[in-house]
Amino acid sequence: MHCHQDLVSCLSCGIILAGLWHLVYHKKSQCSYGRYMALSPPARTVPARLAWFLQEMPAFIIPLLLMLATHKTSIMGKHLLLGTFCVHYFQRTFVYSLLTRGKPFPLGVMVPAGFFCSLNGFLQGHYLLHCAWFDDEWLTGYRYKIGLLLFYTGMGINIHSDFILRNLRKPKEVIYKIPTGGLFEYVSGANYLGEIVEWFGYAVATWSFPALSFALFTLCFIGPRAYYHHRFYQEKFKDYPKFRKALIPFIF
């Protein structure tokens, strides 16, 4: 398969515009899932574990299918794709989805999320396998090393923060509690901070427009959610730590 550069550019720009649209559209209210989910009939929701599994899986499967579909791919691009993007979505599909204790997902949220993961999985996979060019010194370059450091640091923060949130409540408990430990001592959205750092690290390691577009989309999509979580905690708990910020320690 040869590189479809025009398609890559259009999809990358589209992802950035979608992130900006979400940022503006949900300025006053958050996407309806989790604690912000409006009451709806059971027929319109999907169990949380099944929903996360189905919506995240395309972002893992599609890049793998692209690898198998052709033998002429960028070796460095393949290593980056497997070692970053696919690692993340393997964890989200086969680990996080099976452990989550979240509320049932609205079908109207799950389907668009699955579509986005499919589109983004194709974009990242196609670019790294068929369009990206890395010279022999890329492995020793500062962008590669700093990018991977940021990626795996962010992923570690994200996984650890999810662990803390998952163990705040006992099974079948529906009350909310103040998260503590890890970066939750500094921000209300530690899990979101970790994922944002992760994808900006991926953008640095690959030094590509598609990766940057995904990082910006992530910031626009879950950055505001961290702010709303922070406001939710402040309104619900009078003893919520005053020094704790929403997303960026000591700043915001």
From TrEMBL:
Major localization listed first in the record, in broad terms: endoplasmic reticulum
Transmembrane stretches, start-end: 7-26, 46-68, 105-123, 144-161, 199-222
Any single Pfam family the record assigns to this protein: Steroid_dh
Known EC number: 1.3.1.22
Molecular function GO terms recorded: 3-oxo-5-alpha-steroid 4-dehydrogenase (NADP+) activity
3-oxo-5-alpha-steroid 4-dehydrogenase C-terminal domain ranges (all copies): 104-252
EC class of the enzyme, as a word: oxidoreductase
Keyword Protein transport: no
Localization per Swiss-Prot or TrEMBL: Endoplasmic reticulum membrane; Microsome membrane
GO cellular component, as recorded: endoplasmic reticulum membrane
Keyword Endoplasmic reticulum: yes
Domain of life where this protein originates: Eukaryota
Catalytic function, reaction form: 5alpha-pregnane-3,20-dione + NADP(+) = progesterone + NADPH + H(+); 17beta-hydroxy-5alpha-androstan-3-one + NADP(+) = testosterone + NADPH + H(+); a 3-oxo-5alpha-steroid + NADP(+) = a 3-oxo-Delta(4)-steroid + NADPH + H(+)
Keywords, ordered alphabetically: Differentiation, Endoplasmic reticulum, Lipid metabolism, Membrane, Microsome, NADP, Oxidoreductase, Sexual differentiation, Transmembrane, Transmembrane helix
One GO term (biological process): androgen biosynthetic process
InterPro entries: 3-oxo-5-alpha-steroid_4-DH, 3-oxo-5_a-steroid_4-DH_C, SRD5A/TECR
Topology within the bilayer: Multi-pass membrane protein
Function: Converts testosterone into 5-alpha-dihydrotestosterone and progesterone or corticosterone into their corresponding 5-alpha-3-oxosteroids. It plays a central role in sexual differentiation and androgen physiology.
Family: Belongs to the steroid 5-alpha reductase family.
Protein's UniProt name: 3-oxo-5-alpha-steroid 4-dehydrogenase
Organism: Amphilophus citrinellus
